[in-house]
Write a structure and sequence with these properties.
Layout: E1 4-7, E2 10-13, H1 24-28, E3 31-39, E4 42-43, H2 46-60, H3 68-82, E5 87-94, E6 111-118, H4 123-130, E7 132-138, H5 153-164, E8 169-173, E9 178-182, E10 186-191, E11 194-197, H6 208-219, E12 223-226, E13 229-230, H7 231-235, E14 239-243, E15 250-255, E16 258-259, H8 267-284
Helix pairs in contact: 6-8
Length: 290
């Protein structure tokens, strides 16, 4: 089945999908995006993605001329047309097309594109059992990373550093030695049975999987601390983990080559992972392989 994309109201073959040269998303990264999971053909945490998208659009003064209901309908049409039971859907909204000039154009119309690609969520089960490695890099991003903009070059470089080191992810560390988040994930540690993650601020993205884990952990009666933690604390933690839409929860067993805790996935991560996959099953009917 050919892959299809949505471009400003039309579903077209992906290979033929185009945006104009003077689209401001292309020339200025004047755009926002969302990535949502599709499992068993159903969208996961979709309302939360829409809320975050609308918040970002308002902060950037971009008006998207489509309602949430219509956007949801088009997203579901595209998912069905591509025919993947397990996938990720990518949405991007730019300020639109205008003559290249830094200031906002007076009459541009926001542009919406969407793509869907198959994604194997089952691979995360094996990674969850073995744990993954993380390296750390200096946080070189701009100061509003709470907005999910397409200006991701610093994240791209950090992720490439991780891959070159044979690691799954790079954690971004500020000049104050505070671990902020990963290049495409949120970062967590566990110490003395307390689940710790950086509080919401302009320094981190309000991850949808992050919010889900906080909700599930609180519902299970676990102790949670939303506070900054240093790299030294992370290295001395009992456990560490990360969350994201495409990696719902993975235990971190080494940071910069140093083992965390026992150097194996710990019991808190295992308990949290069971909660996460249970929530996914409730929302979508998707069952993790045994």
């Amino acid at each position: 089945m050919p892959q299809l994309a949505y471009v400003d109201g039309r579903i077209v073959p992906l290979a033929q999908a185009r945006i104009p040269v003077e689209d401001r998303g292309l020339q200025f990264a004047d755009a926002l995006y969302e990535v949502a999971a599709v499992l068993n053909g159903r969208l996961l945490d979709w309302p939360q993605h829409l809320i975050r998208l609308r918040r970002g659009l308002a902060a950037l003064f971009i008006e998207l001329p489509i309602s949430d209901a219509a956007l949801t309908l088009q997203a579901k049409r595209l998912i069905a047309a591509n025919g993947h039971a397990d996938a990720i859907i990518y949405l991007q909204v730019s300020r639109g097309v205008a003559r290249r000039d830094h200031g906002f154009p007076a009459n541009s119309r926001a542009s919406l594109i969407m793509t869907v690609r198959r994604f194997d969520f089952a691979q995360r089960i094996a990674q969850q059992r073995t744990g993954i490695a993380v390296i750390t890099v200096n946080d070189m991003r701009w100061r509003r990373v709470d907005l999910k903009t397409t200006g991701l070059l610093a994240n791209v470089m950090a992720k490439q550093d991780a891959r070159a080191a044979g690691a799954f992810e790079a954690w971004l560390v500020g000049p104050d030695d505070i671990v902020r988040e990963g290049s495409s994930t949120n970062a967590w540690i566990v110490k003395d049975d307390v689940l710790i993650t950086h509080p919401l601020s302009e320094s981190i993205l309000a991850g949808i999987a992050r919010a889900a884990l906080l909700r599930l952990a609180a519902g299970a009666g676990m102790t949670i601390a939303e506070r900054p933690f240093t790299l030294a604390e992370a290295l001395a933690a009992d456990e560490a983990l990360l969350t994201s839409t495409t990696a719902p929860l993975l235990p971190v067993v080494t940071i910069d080559g140093c083992p965390i805790g026992s150097g194996r996935p710990g019991p808190i991560a295992a308990r949290l992972a069971a909660l996460v996959w249970g929530d996914i099953a409730t929302q979508t009917g998707w069952q993790a392989p045994a």
